[in-house]
Amino acid sequence: VIDCTPYECGRNGKVLYDIADATGIEILSVSGFHCREYYSLDSKIWKLDEEEATNFFKQEVQQGLKESLAENFDIRASIIKIPFVGMLKGSYLVLTNAAIKAAMETNVPILVHTEQGRDAEWFSDFLLKSGVKPEKVVFCHIDKRNDTLLHQKLAEQGFYLEYDTFLREKYNPDPNTYELISLMVKRGFGNK
Predict the structure, then answer these.
(1) What is the pLDDT of residue 88?
(2) Long-range contacts formed by 173-180: CB under 8 A, 24+ apart
(3) Nearest CA-CA partner of 128 in 100, 87, 161, 98
(4) What's the per-residue H, E or C state across the chain?
(5) Is 2 exposed, middle or buried (0-12, 13-18, 19+ CB in 10 A)?
(6) For residue 135, what pLDDT is reported?
(7) pTM for the full model?
(8) How confident is the model at residue 18, as a pLDDT?
(9) Rounded to whole angstroms, how far apart are CA atoms 76 and 79?
(10) CA 85 to CA 117: how far, in whole Å?
């Protein structure tokens, strides 16, 4: 199970540890960041410069989650999360560059939160130009953008695609997500 909640967004490494210990289920945690609206106004993460953010993300992967280190638990992030909301400027650009750098330096995968797949082709090019290996990237919520040519292009480039609208009726999963999965499997991208 992957818990996609980064630092200051409600993540609690100790609770994740306790759940994993009680159930025997391995839970992977993320470092990185999420959309600005999920943070308090005094959030520290949005005030970091690129070097500080890179070091913070790397520390969570290499040494442990910020909140679990304070409780002397060795719980490390295994994935770095990046939200792509259709633009990269200001703090989003700073933190995105830091997250990419930290992921590449620690060799952990990147999980990209997309806003309904908006501008995913632009962001995939940005990642490639940054030197990120596509097989280290998962584009999340991409099925909300029912564009089979985009999905095929991303899969051909080596990116992974995460579909999650199965139980969300407002996204019409029957004519969209299920058909998209079927089509992608028929085209040979079932492993993506």
Answers:
(1) 93
(2) 176/143, 176/146, 177/143, 177/146, 180/143, 180/146, 180/148, 180/151
(3) 100
(4) CEECCCCCCCCCHHHHHHHHHHHCCCCEEEEECCCHHHCCCCCCHHHCCHHHHHHHHHHHHHCCCHHHHCCCCCCCEEEEEEEECCCCCHHHHHHHHHHHHHHHHHCCCEEEEECCCCCHHHHHHHHHHCCCCHHHEEEECHHHCCCHHHHHHHHHHCCEECCCCCCCHHHCCHHHHHHHHHHHHHCCCCCC
(5) middle
(6) 98
(7) 0.94
(8) 92
(9) 9
(10) 9
Token look-up 């490639």 returns 128
What pLDDT does 146 receive? 87
Which residue ranges of the chain lie beneath pLDDT 70? none
Residue 175 tokens read as 């004519």
- Give me 151's structure tokens: 């999905």
What pLDDT is recorded for position 169?
Answer: 82
Place of tokens 């999420």: 34
Q: What angle do CA 90, 91, 92 make, to 5 degrees?
A: 90
Closest CA to 74 of 3, 157, 17: 17
Q: What does each C-alpha distance from 99 to 57, 61, 134, 139, 176 come to in angstroms?
A: 7, 11, 15, 15, 32
Q: How many CB atoms lie within 10 A of CB 111?
A: 24
pLDDT score of 7: 96
State how far the Cα of 170 lies from the Cα of 99, in Å rounded to an integer. 32
Cβ atoms of residues 164 and 117 within 8 Å:
no
